[in-house]
Amino acid sequence: MNADQYLKEISARVHWKFSRQDADEIVNDYKALLTDAESRTDDFVSALGTPSEAVRHLEAPSGYRLWLAACILMLSCVALLFLNLHFSSQDRHLLAVLLVPGFITPIIWFWLTENGYRYHKPPSPAILALLSLMAAAVCLECLLFKSVGRSLSQQTAKLLYFLLQIAGGFSLFAGAAGVILAKLRDRRWRAVYTAAITTLAVSAFLCSILRSMSLDLSVASWWVPYLWRFVLIACAGTFATLFSLC
């Protein structure tokens, strides 16, 4: 392992375990240690021990277990939303139970651990690209859902269900990546997570309506009772995502 690879791996490990300020200080210390040409030799790097060994010797911060708990909570929310979509649960109150901690946890955690930490670069283009993809998926779902009242064809229903499943699967992986990259690289990746659980919640909500036994499409205003719930989910998700980009 050369010096560059060593720095890259130890950076990921310390950023996962420590707060961003502390992790940056540790990485800078290793960078200073490996700046000299003599220090960049393979023998010197090997003498430092593996990155995992080096991090293991550092005293674990008191908040590390809290981070693991927060991480598990966020990943559980996105996973349960995906399962809710997959099994088409009729309990729409479950969405609120999963969305509230899903929105609040990343905002509060990074506000507490990175309060005052500023990034000098704009958000990664990958963040903006993923947000655009998920926003487009939600818009397309809504357009297809709107056509349900005019067309009851099996083809339309299959297309909508297929889109809901694809959007849900994509959001599951995007949300998990957002949580991990927010800790390892840039807290603004949490916006991908909040957008992912919003997309999953919208998909699960629309799917539960389609499978509702009480749905009467013969009534022109059949969609009105569901509108305020959809608006609430969309507005909460949009606000959380925009705030997470800060």
Description of the molecule:
This protein is mainly α and 246 residues long. The chain has 2 domains: 3-57, no CATH class; 62-245, no CATH class. It is 74% helix and 0% strand. The chain has helices at residues 3-17, 20-33, 42-47, 51-57, 64-86, 93-113, 125-146, 154-184, 190-210, 224-244. The longest helix has 31 residues, at 154-184. The chain is elongated, with a radius of gyration of 22 Å. The two termini are 36 Å apart. The model has no long low-confidence stretch (mean pLDDT 85).
C-alpha geometry: elongated
The count of β-strands is 0
Q: Largest sheet, described in full?
A: none
Tally of structural domains: 2
- What order do the helices and strands follow? HHHHHHHHHH
Distance from first to last alpha carbon: 36 Å
The portion of residues forming beta strands comes to: under 5%
On the 0-100 scale, what is the average pLDDT?
85
Using only C-alpha atoms, the radius of gyration works out to 22 Å
| Number of discrete helical segments | 10
Note poorly predicted spans: none
Structural class by helix and strand composition:
mainly alpha
- Assign a percent range to the helix content: over 70%
